[in-house]
Amino acid sequence: MSGLPDLESLRLLVLVGEWGSLGRAAAELGVSQPAASKRLSALERQLRLVLVDRTRRGSRLTPAGQVVCDWARRVLDEVDGLLTGAAALRAHRDAELRVAASMTVAEHLAPGWIGELRRAEPALYVGLQVTNSTSAVELVRAGEVDMGFVESPSIPSDLAYRRVAVDRLAVVVAPTHPWSRRRRPVRPAELAATPLVVREAGSGTRETLDRALTAADCGPAQPLLELGSTTAVRSAVVAGAGPAVLSVLAVATDLSEGRLVEVGVEGIDLRRALCAVWPSGRRLVGPAAALLAIAGRAGP
């Protein structure tokens, strides 16, 4: 298979599945039925699959077409999240709603929340600053943003907060690492003594790990590499640099596709709350309150 399917072809396939009609799907996209049929045939040739049964009574997805349609819907959702997140990043200086989010939240959750908010309020201008948890707290304190989303295990007493989701950190290694074949879980002392690829000081992921190890009387993690983003840490681990402890949100695809292996760990609790924060004594209203409600409903 050469090249990648274009997004409009994927949208066409999803619409055919929803409407059961190539003509209605074409009308929804604003193209002629012959053009839509040609585009769908090209997609079938590209994937080497029969995706649609065309009859006089309409068009129906084949079993393979239904599977591809489900995948296509996820791809389109991810693209929508990417575009929403990029627009929010462009808009943060002059936004009507200014939000700061730690990297895990910003990369995996906030675009979906902001997208749902903007679907309800299309004229709303939302700005998103991507940072670590400590910096998000300082932006809230300084009044530079209306609210923040953090992943720290503790919230400063001068901020109001609400838990919107629960996350879990996982010990992950490349498939070539010796830990990928071990049968026994890693104990806290061994994890603390092993040089790890870690996030920078101030990140919620680093603070959660250090607190868990300290609570087990093992001291903080020993850095092998200290990197400024979750993506950089994940890439270093995939390349075989060493173990890391990362959010399952960040590595779910790598785990399912075999690029990373999760290693069991016992004796420490690596769960953490993801929280919205805002100045204490202030009640969130308008778009900020709406975003908080969306995050609380949608968070994992």
Automatic annotation (TrEMBL):
Any idea which GO molecular function terms this record carries? Answer: DNA-binding transcription factor activity; transcription cis-regulatory region binding
Q: Tell me the keywords, alphabetical order.
A: DNA-binding, Transcription, Transcription regulation
Query: What InterPro entries does its record include?
Result: LysR_HTH_N, LysR_subst-bd, WH-like_DNA-bd_sf, WH_DNA-bd_sf
Question: Start and end of every HTH lysR-type domain?
Answer: 5-62
Q: Which domain of life is it from?
A: Bacteria
Record-linked PROSITE patterns: HTH_LYSR (PS50931)
Family the UniProt entry places it in: Belongs to the LysR transcriptional regulatory family.
Name this protein carries in UniProt: DNA-binding transcriptional regulator, LysR family
What lineage does UniProt assign to this protein's organism?
A: Bacteria, Bacillati, Actinomycetota, Actinomycetes, Pseudonocardiales
